[in-house]
Amino acid sequence: MSQANNGADLDASASGISSSGSKRKRSFVWDHFTKLDNAEKCVCDHCGRIYTCNSTCGTGHLWRHLDRCEGHKKGNVSQEALQTLNLGHTGVRIKVEELRDIHEVKDCLRKTKGMTDQLALTKATITRTQLVSAGDHVCLDLCSLMKHGEGLLVGTYSGGLFLVHSEHSESNPSASRPFRVHAGPVHAHIALPDGKTCYLSELQEGKDVMLVNQNGMRRTAMIGRIEIESQPLILVEAMTLEESNIHQKSMSIFLQNAGTVGFVTPHEENNPLKIVIPVTSLKVGDEVLVRLHSE
Ligand SMILES: [Zn+2]
Question: Which residues form a coiled coil (predicted)?
Answer without folding.
Answer: none
